[in-house]
Amino acid sequence: MNSSEMTHIHNVPLEPLDIISGFEVRPGFFGTMGATLIPCGVSFTIQSHGATSCELLLFHKSEDEPYAVLKFPENYKIGCVYSMIVFYLDITDVEYAYRLDGPFDEKKGYRFDSKRILLDPYAKAVSGQSNWGYNTNYNRGYRARVVRSNFDWGTAYHASIPMEDLVIYETHVRGFTKDSSSGVSHPGTFRGLREKIPYLKELGVNAVELMPIFEFDEMRDVRVVNDRKLLDYWGYNPVCFFAPNTSYASKVEYNQEGNELKHLIKKLHENGLEIYLDVVFNHTAEGNENGPVISYKGLDNQIYYILTPDGYYYNFSGCGNTLNCNHPIVQQMILECLRYWVITYRIDGFRFDLASILGRNEDGSPMSKPPLLQSLAFDPILGNVKLIAEAWDAGGLYQVGDFPSWNRWVEWNGRYRDDMRSFLKGDNGKAGLAVTRIFGSEDLYDERVGCKASVNFITCHDGFTLYDLYAYNEKHNEANGWDNTDGSNDNVSWNCGVEGGTDNPDISRLRMRMIKNAAAVLFLSRGIPMFLAGDEFGNTQFGNNNPYCQDNIISWLDWGLLKKNKGLFDFFKYMIAFRKQHAPVRMHTASCSYGFPELSAHDVIPWETNFAADAHYTGIMYAGRTDGEDDCVYLAVNTYWEPLTIRLPKLPLGACWYQAVDTFEEESVARRAVKPEEEIRIRERSVMVFEVGKVNE
Question: Whole-prediction pTM value?
């Protein structure tokens, strides 16, 4: 707000006021969208390029009909912006919405309806959705509440963690602690997640990436399949971009919405962890022409969505509509939204769902320099914020390695996932690709940028868990109610000999070993490692690779597995710590005094390589120097079904290789020195790791 607007932010207005519907009002803060609380009232501001008139509706929070309708006078409109301060409102009992009039011409994209109740797109809290699985807005229309933002962040400063030092943990707020096995006092909430911070610290991750927490409608496609209620559990159908999901709070926070989330963020920062939000700016819950009207359709449908020449909705998102992200109005909204989350919630980063849509033009075509992506890259408020792109969309655009970045954007590396899955399960002809991915995907990213540009992952929320990757050959999504037709058919998985659960101890041991192999390679790859919550203790989704609708044990973490698979958790913990201890694995360092190259690939014989079709082994060596000490790590990966004999690169006098990891062993092994020229037996389908030390350490 500017200085002239500030003139009236006092307990007593300085000028005579207008009276509309019995309320004292005056023109509001035209430069500040949404509902802005001031000491003596609330400024309500909304914009529409196509509307001919606008009404503000005020409701008692317990009633369905408005107790007041305030029509904006002509002098309360500047350009396309309507703004009004309403004085002396009791915000604890007020909810608000809008009605706009204007043309209705579907072929031209206009869908104005003077009787339609519309949600403020800049609302900081959405009412009627605080109880999970219950939405009161269908019949009465979506309404918003005025939020009082007075959270005390204190004076603590949270430094940004360098990209190359990150270890990202992807999770779902509700599913992380909802099952009783989590042992928290407030399951399925922000507070429940806060209770698990000591666990996250012990594991060693330093960044938590939350699946969508913007207000969404979990009841959007509610169904009952086999006596089980199915909801939009994941949350990838946003209702309001500025409002946190109130059902993720452990109690109703009238006019203080978001405080519990802020307490979570503050506690994460105090413990050295960053927090990233998975944001969905590619579509909304309004769907196509048959979907509901919540907000944008009734404001400026022709602006907010990419439409066909006949007024229908392009569907590059796979969810019915596509936001028109590079229209100046939509650009402005997205930028203001991200700034709001950074300033008000201290968010450290954003993962952009189907981010390629953010680079499409108003006709749907890809742009070489999308204005939105460029604006986000250079915005000063977002200057230290991580910007992570899922560099593809449902319209066939795939930009991994080619996403417009300006050296600010990093990418989910889908090629790392696919190639490493294939190599680790023993497919032919993948050794060369595996080396490329472990080196930081230099075919996709500049060798000096790859450490910071590639988010490496083998699993994420979308697809199999790491346990299921080695327990199922095929997806098993029957519980979703679509006859197992949904979800990807290309999982690059291997069931180790039996589909699903088994009592066979040999197969169970093999599965645990395969999981450890994947973890060891992930944490010893150049780039930013990310893994799915629960992978560290063998969580399963019972073969469901698309549990978007499963608000039950299919998606909830079973913390009982942490005790059962404690050795797996300890291995993850060890490998994360090992990665942190060895800088050359994470980034470029000073040159090693041994004369070794920074990165090198080896066959069973040092300095030889074999990328033939039948190759199933690769050795990777990192060599560098930190704090005046030489630091070398050798990663040996045998995906063959028989043991192999290997040798390690020869070291100078006084230095010695020490074995640090052998995934074939069920229990952790004592660190042992490797004799010079020793032949090492690496057993079938296993990974070994060695580090350089001094003789007789």
Answer: 0.96
